[in-house]
Amino acid sequence: APVLGVVQGKALGFGCSLASLCDITIAADSATFALPETAHRIMPTAAMSALIDRVQRKQLMYIAYSAEEISAEQAMMAGIVSVVVPAAKLDGAVNGMVEKIKKIPLPAVHAVKEFTMNGMGLANPQMLAFAQNLHATVNSYSKMRA
Fold first, then answer.
1. Would strands 70-71 and 83-85 be described as parallel, antiparallel, or unpaired?
2. Residue 62 to residues 59, 112, 122: CA-CA distances in angstroms?
3. Which three-class secondary structure string do you get for the chain?
4. Per-residue pLDDT for the chain (146 aa), expressed as one digit of tens each?
5. Is the pTM of this model over 0.85?
6. How many CA atoms lie within 13 A of 23 on its CB side?
7. What's CA 56's distance to the chain center, in Å?
8. C-beta neighbour count of 49 within 10 angstroms
């Protein structure tokens, strides 16, 4: 199933990592993100391991070395967050996303997750073949037809 993360306050250290690991992360515009470990003389490498394939190198280095909190908008630009909404509309945005996902046929939901987890590290020809195989398999399922 898709993992939906919701951040309404501070996502620090592993909280920041968890936010990045979710399939979709919705953050309030008031949320902040940080890897504060270096400010406490702790290497943030464990928390960074969750971010390493999601955040651009320069952004990750800045977040790790500065230990500063970044805004939800900056976290979205870095790849930690999917979308930022006004804090007052956070619950509505989350419920709306859940409803959208519930309308997608389950085989398609599974295929998107499967492709995201296993296809992205493949070379282009293998990725395309994997995508085509998933597409053909999912579309052959009777519940995919309207």
1. unpaired
2. 5, 31, 28
3. CCCEEEECCEEECHHHHHHHHCCEEEEECCCEEECHHHHHCCCCHHHHHHHCCCCCHHHHHHHHHHCCCEEHHHHHHHCCCCEEECHHHHHHHHHHHHHHHHHCCHHHHHHHHHHHHHCCCCCHHHHHHHHHHHHHHHHCCHHHCC
4. 899 999 999 999 999 999 999 999 999 999 999 999 999 999 999 999 999 989 999 999 999 999 999 999 999 999 999 999 999 999 999 999 999 999 999 999 999 999 988 888 899 999 999 999 998 988 887 777 66
5. yes
6. 15
7. 14
8. 10
Distance, in Å, from the CA atom of 36 to the CA atom of 42, rounded to the nearest integer, reads 9
Q: State how far the Cα of 73 lies from the Cα of 62, in Å rounded to an integer.
A: 15
Residue 32's beta-bridge partner residues? Answer: 10, 71
Instruction: Tell the residue number behind the tokens 């250290």, with chain if given.
Output: 13
The alpha carbon of residue 60 and the mean position of all alpha carbons in its chain are separated, in whole angstroms, by: 15
- In residues, how long is the chain? 146
Take residue 127 and report the two structure tokens written for it.
Answer: 């990725």
